[in-house]
Design brief:
The complex is a heterodimer of chains A (342) and B (354).
Chain A lengths: L8 H29 L4 H6 L5 H11 L5 H13 L13 H36 L4 H15 L2 H16 L9 H6 L7 H8 L2 H38 L2 H8 L4 H38 L5 H10 L3 H29 L6
Chain B lengths: L6 H4 L8 E12 L2 E13 L4 E5 L6 H9 L6 E9 L2 E2 L5 H7 L4 E4 L13 H12 L5 H14 L16 H13 L5 E5 L7 H18 L2 E5 L3 H7 L2 E6 L2 E7 H6 L4 H8 L37 H5 L4 E3 L5 E3 L24 H4 L1
Parallel strand pairs in B: 3-8, 3-9, 6-7, 7-8
Antiparallel strand pairs in B: 1-2, 1-4, 4-5, 9-10, 10-12, 11-12
Helix pairs in contact in B: 4-5, 5-6
Classes of the chains: A mainly alpha (342), B alpha/beta (354).
Chain lengths: 342, 354
């Protein structure tokens, strides 16, 4: 198989990976300075009035807030490079611990929601786009607008109120106490731990707890997907190469599948990556609504306690996650579309 | 305006025609009414013969080509009879129409740059096309068939697995032609195949189309607005105006002795080395939702007579062979008295033309 002229995929990936470094640097710098625009310093903001001035001064010195800004900035950058995201002020824990302890719950919630949105949103969007102005198109479009426009907590509330009871689904937390007690913690991702333990009842319990939060969060981005896929499908079916394929006598099904669906999904992938940011902010609201012990709920707690150390660490982590996801999307795009590799 | 033509009057070849179109009509539905883009077109095409279809933009050339292929957009309707080897392709079941398309009826398009799927290799285009019509062929046989046609088009076998964006415009048009020819269709519609290409590539493509009938006995409907290409590549020419073929006949005869004023003016408007001034036909093609009464060209015709605005012209045999629709040619007996007087034309103002 000749790859001559097809563009070099490894080289493209290397380029993208190298570009991530300046991107991360910009984000870190922004996070650092935005949090320091507030008057005073994080320690006095968090603990001022709660402890004696001497103790406050001690904490400030210990955390280095009396040093020049540029030195603090350098410290921050180098500690992030060592995957040290700092310490929380209010409960004095390494931020990385907070993230590993709570991130797992957020991870499998968002992944479940994302999969749900893809599985529902893409087929509905494709059908709506292929059969424009038909009854399914109108219904799916309406569904898409409603799910996107409805606030997360409202959808969550509706599900808790009308769906949870008849189906016997739990409305709070990620598992019953017995499951948490029985399943040994290995990966900090409860679903994976439950699967590893081979405890069928525990897996079932975790999945039951997952249904409503994942549906709530999934519906939010599902609406975006439906509209996005529909528009792209409409445009692609009018493309010149689709007509040319018809002229070669390909059946309508093959034209729709090979030339329509596949090509319509290329621009969707890029935007899907951008939706990941929406997913994270939606996760914060979903976790609050369903009392889900994830990083989003933790972030809300630290914001309410003005714990800038924790907020800085968690936001940094979120930003890194978004950057890595967009890198992943770029690579997937290059695998599908040969033109990107140039 | 219905006409009843028998095959011997229209056909030029002694051979059985591959395509025989009778009174073909195509409408586009719009909110303002139906656009009669093609309004009663008849022609015959013998095996290996090339018919050039010329006319201004918007006269219905491309619509006719697409109508024959069955590639009309939603909301368009077609009517009439098109016999392909004796079968009426307008009344086929959708399944039979699919089987015919590609295998017997091919189409080459105007914009080669956007006609290939950017995500698929050239090899995949060939594979899906051949597999659709000949599912029993092995992968090797498909490859050999494809490489053979590509060689004829001057594309080296090393490029077989490349992607469309790795080719130039001229190469992509040759790829499109190869993709159309790999199934050996008996009839090919080429819709302005050289319009998007530069002159050198244009000459190359015209040469390839010329070779077609020799190599494959393909009948070609060559849609173009370039009269020069018709002179070079076609046996016969049909001149289209406002949805109708106003004159058709052998290229040599029609170009030498145009019978219809529109043909004459169109030929005069062609730019060549000896051209000193630019000639154009004042006015614009008529509104096809509500075309003018009588001859559709009469508002722009320098030779218009009273009868032209009143009665539809009759489709009659040209003096030099072929057909023409113009009262200047006749038939005499149907022109009413005083019908021969020159028509008082409304002055065409610059505003009208805009």
């Amino acid at each position: 198989m000749s790859r001559a002229g097809s563009g070099s995929l490894p080289r493209y990936i290397l380029q993208r990976v190298l570009l991530v470094i300046p991107m991360i640097w910009v984000i870190l710098t922004l996070v650092f300075f935005i949090l320091r625009v507030a008057p005073g310093d994080p320690v006095s903001a968090a603990l001022g009035g709660k402890i004696s001035p001497q103790a406050l001064e001690q904490r400030r010195q210990a955390l280095g807030f009396n040093r020049p800004l540029i030195a603090q900035y350098w410290d921050y950058l180098s500690s992030v490079a060592h995957l040290d995201f700092g310490t929380t002020f209010s409960d004095n824990q390494p931020v990385l611990r907070v993230i590993t302890d709570n991130g797992g719950a957020t991870l499998y919630l968002t992944v479940a929601a994302f999969v749900l949105a893809l599985v529902v949103g893409i087929p509905l969007g494709l059908i709506a786009g292929r059969y424009r102005d038909s009854a399914p198109d109108v219904v799916f479009r309406l569904f898409g607008i409603l799910t996107y426009a409805a606030p997360v907590f409202f959808v969550g509330f509706l599900l808790q109120f009308y769906v949870a009871e008849p189906l016997g689904l739990p409305t709070s937390g990620d598992a019953s106490p017995i499951t948490i007690f029985e399943v040994p913690t290995k990966t900090h991702i409860l679903l994976v731990d439950a699967l590893l333990s081979g405890n069928g009842a525990a897996v079932q319990d975790v999945l039951k707890h997952l249904v409503l939060p994942a549906t709530t969060l999934g519906l939010l981005i599902c609406g975006v997907f439906i509209r996005l896929v529909r528009v792209n499908m409409l445009q692609t079916m009018q493309a010149d190469y689709v007509e040319a394929a018809e002229a070669r006598g390909l059946t309508a099904g093959k034209v729709t599948w090979r030339h329509g669906f596949r090509n319509a999904l290329v621009p969707v992938i890029t935007v899907v990556g951008l939706q990941f940011a929406l997913l994270l902010s939606g996760a914060i609201l979903t976790e609050e609504t369903f009392n889900w012990p994830g990083i989003g709920q933790k972030l809300l707690y630290y914001i309410n306690n003005r714990d800038y150390g924790a907020v800085q660490g968690i936001v940094t982590f979120f930003a890194l996650a978004v950057v890595l996801i967009s890198l992943l999307i770029d690579i997937v795009n290059a695998l599908i579309d040969p033109r990107v590799r140039y | 305006m219905s006409i009843d033509l028998t095959d011997e009057v229209v056909g030029f070849s002694a051979q059985e025609p591959v395509i025989s179109a009778r009174d073909v009509r195509v409408w586009y539905g719009t909110t303002k009414g139906a656009i009669r883009a093609v309004d009663g077109v008849s022609f015959d095409l013998a095996p290996g013969e090339t018919l050039g279809l010329v006319g201004e933009s918007g006269c219905g050339k491309s619509t006719l080509g697409r109508g024959l292929m069955g590639l009309l957009p939603e909301g368009a309707k077609r009517d009439g009879e098109v016999l392909f080897r004796g079968r009426d392709i307008f009344s086929l079941s959708p399944k039979a129409a699919y089987q015919l398309r590609g295998r017997e009826l091919g189409m080459i398009f105007q914009e080669p740059l956007t006609r290939l799927n950017p995500l698929m290799r050239i090899s995949q285009h060939f594979e899906e096309t051949i597999k659709q019509h000949e599912p029993d062929l092995s992968k090797d046989e498909i490859r050999n068939r494809a490489l053979e046609v590509l060689r004829l088009m001057g594309i080296p076998p090393t490029r077989y697995r490349s992607y469309p964006h790795e080719f130039s415009g001229g190469m992509r048009q040759r790829l499109m032609i190869a993709l159309t020819l790999v199934l050996r269709p008996a009839f090919v519609v080429a819709d302005e195949p050289t319009t998007a290409l530069d002159v050198l590539v244009e000459a190359q493509i015209v040469q390839i189309l010329n070779d077609l009938r020799r190599n494959f006995q393909t009948s070609l409907l060559l849609i173009t607005h370039n009269v020069g290409i018709v002179a070079e590549a076609c046996d016969r020419v049909a001149v289209m105006y406002a949805g109708r073929i106003v004159e058709q006949g052998s290229v040599a005869d029609v170009f030498k002795n145009p019978q219809h004023p529109y043909t004459r003016e169109l030929l005069r408007s062609t730019i060549s080395l000896t051209t000193t001034g630019l000639n154009y036909i004042p006015g614009a093609p008529p509104d096809l939702i509500d075309p003018p009464d009588g001859c559709r060209f009469h508002p722009r015709c320098p030779d218009a007579m009273n009868v032209c605005a009143a009665k539809d012209p009759v489709n009659i045999a040209r003096p030099g062979g072929g057909r023409v629709e113009c009262w200047l040619v006749g038939p005499e007996e149907e022109i009413p008295s005083a019908g021969r007087q020159a028509l008082e034309q409304e002055e065409l103002t610059v505003v009208d033309e805009a």
